[in-house]
Amino acid sequence: MDQLIVEADLVIGAVLIPGAAAPKLVTKKHITMMKKGAVVVDVAIDQGGCFETSKATTHQDPTYIVDDVVHYCVANMPGGVARTSTMALTNATLPFAVTIANKGAKQALLDDVHLLAGLNVASGNITYKPVADVLGYQYVEPSVALNV
User: Fold this and answer.
1) Which residues pair with 10 in a beta bridge?
2) So what CATH class is 2-75?
3) pLDDT tens, residue order, the chain (148 aa)
4) Relative to the CA of 29, which of 12, 17, 39, 145 has its CA 20 to 30 Å away?
């Protein structure tokens, strides 16, 4: 993998560990060995980035250079196409909102394991283990927090 990184014209880092910081998969040493003018895009920047040299940028000032390698680390990249990303997010989440509206939150969660898996906090308890672990809080099973 090391050789592929340093020979690449473009490296896109897209790592997601729900509830945790992204691991640093591309090191500063990798960056220093890359070709002049190569580009790295850190899609994981919202979780701290997966390149050691990453720092969050904005749509107004999206790039910076480290060791002649262009870095693009815009937090909230979908914000650059706000209407399109909003439509996609709405299409994906609206069915869940309708279910919650029709059944009430508790019943909707109990009837849909996927919706229940997205529950992070209930009755003051952290019900999503990766979040509890990162924050140092006690994890409580969703069904316990919902008093089922």
Assistant:
1) 39
2) alpha beta
3) 789 999 999 999 999 887 788 999 999 999 999 999 999 999 999 999 999 999 999 999 999 999 999 999 999 999 899 999 999 999 999 999 999 999 999 999 999 999 999 999 999 999 999 889 888 999 999 989 998 6
4) 17
The amino acid at 66: V
Per the document, the length of the chain is: 148
Domain boundaries, the chain: 2-75, 83-145
